[in-house]
Amino acid sequence: MASYLVNRLSFEIWGHGEIPSYDVIASNIASQRVAHRLGYFPAWVSDWRCNFEGLEQ
């Protein structure tokens, strides 16, 4: 069901001239599998918990 819904939404977004993206938390393996099944792939990785304060020098 998830794959079907994400697929439909992706094509709906494309139909409006936009490029769909799929964001998922690294620990959510089931969601990653849905994305992979539909052809989404990792384009970037972010760790929102990382604190870079003091590393600007």
How would you describe what is shown here?
With 57 residues, the chain is mostly helical. Helices cover 40% and strands 0% of the residues. It contains two helices and no strands. The chain has helices at residues 2-15, 29-37. The chain is elongated. The model has no long low-confidence stretch (mean pLDDT 88).
Question: In summary, what is this structure?
Answer:
The protein has 57 residues and is mainly α. It has helices at 2-15, 29-37.
Overall, the morphology is: elongated
SSE string, helix = H, strand = E? HH
Distance N to C terminus: 49 Å
Q: Indicate the radius of gyration in whole angstroms.
A: 15 Å
Structural class: mainly alpha
What labels would you give this structure?
2 helices, single chain, 40% helix, mainly alpha, 57 residues
What are the SSEs and their pairings?
Elements: H1 2-15, H2 29-37
